[in-house]
Amino acid sequence: MKKVIAFAVAAFILIALCVPAFAADPAKIVGAEELYEALDESSNPSVAMELDEEDGVKFVNFTVTSNNDPWLQFNPVLAVGSANKYVSIRYRTSNTEVASIDLYVKINEPHAIAQGIVADGEWHNAVADLSEGGAGNHWDNDNPDGTIARFDMMAGTGTDWAIDIAFLAFFDNEADAKAFTVPSQGAAPVTEDEPAGTANVVDFDSEESYQIGMSLDLIEWNGAALNQTADGKARANLDTYAGEDGSFDIAKYAGETISYSGWAVFRKAIAGFGYAINDKLVFDDSFTVAPEAGLAEAVGKIFPGEDCSGVLRFKVTVPIKELEGSNTVCAVVKLDDGTVVRLNSATTYDRNTQVVLTGAEAPAPTDEPQPRTGDAAVAMIAVIAVLAMGAAVVFAKKRSF
To answer: For the segment 41-68, what is each residue's pLDDT rounded down to a tens digit?
Structure first.
């Protein structure tokens, strides 16, 4: 009997592993253009909105100068369907006073709240359950058709606010809403196969890098900090997860992103930060972080005689989930003369961001039609189920004798 139980447990484990995990497409998505057209700017004169585009990504910029809890009406009401009660809102703001983004079923009440707004000037997603919030369980009771009358893009108290909204995505379950983000975790970055104006990509330790120094304070895997124990241990802790060949298995650790945070200073002005995946370079303004007061002075004490007034902080996030095969990844900095420097110091290895990440091998090209992921999972489950039942029958026959 123990053998049958063990086989059955193994079968169920295999079934669980074969079921695909992915973020489903939204039942309805309201992009920037539709959002801009759907909102009635005349419903609240203190709120101004502008349809804008940056690096190929469209968004609505909302500004307000002297109004607490700014909002606009949908005209007509926005219909999403009562089943799609979970919304993922793509936003970015630097206003710390913004407490939440709210959606109202009626002009006054009731409303749902998307909390946890991050005010760092980078793109994030906030998720709300439209059947819960400030007025309790109202979605099904008060609004069986699933319509939204009002959008409070900046709920809170303050002045001189601004927020960008890229889209509202609606789902019938919370898990998919929380999983729905863009791969780069930001507005689409600028991708350059060769940097604009130059093909001069150099290593940090080279004479052409103009480097004074840098720090690597933090490495994050999927947004979670690796277990740092002291300054300079970020790279050492990352390396504890490397395989025998020094590479990192993306699938083994369910890798989606790897992030690097620190500061850098060069003898030329820094134009921006980005990352390299093999020969592809990606830059994004959101990777540059303003230095705190006193940083230049503190760094200047480390490097006496050097001009450290141009020191900048960085947080570079690299999407890695879709990588296939072996990939060399590292953070980079672009200088004002177009030189791109890989932050891959070998002499001060604890400041080396360069890693080799191994993803799944790319499938061989074929002209044969490929089964859908769901079909493969169902077929595998059926095979395992038949094997499990066969084992049980064989064991029962053995017991009968």
So the answer is: 888 888 899 999 887 788 999 998 766 6
Residue 5 token pair: 């139980």
Cα-based angle 387, 393, 398 (whole degrees, multiple of 5): 125
- Sequence-distant (6+) residues with CB within 8 A of 116 are 126
Contact indicator for 324, 362 with CB cutoff of 8 Å: yes
Q: 391: part of which helix (H) or strand (E)? A: helix 373-400
If phi > 0 it is left, if psi is from -120 to 50 it is alpha, else beta; for residue 121 that is left
Q: What share of the chain is helix, strand, coil (3-state, %, to 5)?
A: 20, 35, 40
Query: Is the CB of residue 264 less than 8 Å from the CB of residue 333?
Result: yes
Average pLDDT, the chain: 77
CATH class entry, domain 28-179:
mainly beta
Q: Nearest 5°: CA angle at 378, between 377 and 381?
A: 85
Q: What is the pTM of this model?
A: 0.46
Tell me whether the omega of the peptide bond preceding residue 110 falls within 30 degrees of 0, making it cis: yes
